[in-house]
Amino acid sequence: MSSNAKAAVSRVAVGQMTATGDQQQNLKTCSRLAKEARARGCSTLFLPECFSYIGLTPTDGVKMAQPLTGPLMQQYQSLASSVGIWLSLGGFQERSPTDPDRLCNCHVILDDQGSIRATYRKVHLFDVEVENGPVLMESRSTAPGNELVACDSPAGRLGLTICYDLRFPEVYQALTFQHQAEVLLVPSAFTKLTGEAHWELLLRARAVECQCYVIAAAQAGKHNEKRESYGHSLIIDPWGRVIGKLDDPSATGIAVADIDPEELQRVRRRMPIQQHRIQGRTCLGWDAPQ
């Protein structure tokens, strides 16, 4: 490609659904969303956390967990290859290879041939008693990850996170300034109360401070008598503008937007945050300019 060639725009879809305890029904929902995304010219579909299963209790998830080489992941790999679309599987209940009593909340990227391109295991676990809401102690059933992950895709270089990671801006800064991420992924199952207060606020902040696209696929609605999720799946550009969202914030469906590398570079040229960040860290005497 010549130096004057324009970087390709990639159309993407952010998905939203109400996962239940029926893995095969959830697969059918994801399949429908993938086919709709492909029909609308999308290279990639981004699915939310817990896309394949939400049970009544955390121990249900441990019982249903499978390895990444298991039959359920193979079905999603077949879906990606048959539809011809990249899939961001926002949070898969992966059987822990080291702890039989816990699982790993694993974000998996599949290419359009069904091959696994990247895996990220959620680092920050949601151990919170939500006021007037549920008590969620993710660490009781989930083993934390210990590595940040980014990978290349048709939509650009992806920085992988999951849900509660959103509250830790240093994660997104590291993905951007150390791992060269251009698109930050935040698949989630936010509670209704915390979503109403903080969801869009934090997502737009991450986009602005990192000058990245942000794609946030969300669970929505009542999964069972114990779980309800906020919804409001979003695609946000590097200037902090919402460029994709569902008309019905609690419905199952997709929203589509274009990821434009030229727009990302324009934002970064107009306000060179990375350069100023290095200068600021140097002035403060901080060790590694990141």
From TrEMBL:
<dbReference type="Pfam" id="PF00795">
    <property type="entry name" value="CN_hydrolase"/>
</dbReference>
<dbReference type="InterPro" id="IPR036526">
    <property type="entry name" value="C-N_Hydrolase_sf"/>
</dbReference>
<dbReference type="GO" id="GO:0016811">
    <property type="term" value="F:hydrolase activity, acting on carbon-nitrogen (but not peptide) bonds, in linear amides"/>
</dbReference>
<keyword id="KW-0378">Hydrolase</keyword>
<feature type="domain" description="CN hydrolase">
    <location>
        <begin position="10"/>
        <end position="261"/>
    </location>
</feature>
<dbReference type="InterPro" id="IPR003010">
    <property type="entry name" value="C-N_Hydrolase"/>
</dbReference>
<protein>
    <recommendedName>
        <fullName>CN hydrolase domain-containing protein</fullName>
    </recommendedName>
</protein>
<dbReference type="InterPro" id="IPR045254">
    <property type="entry name" value="Nit1/2_C-N_Hydrolase"/>
</dbReference>
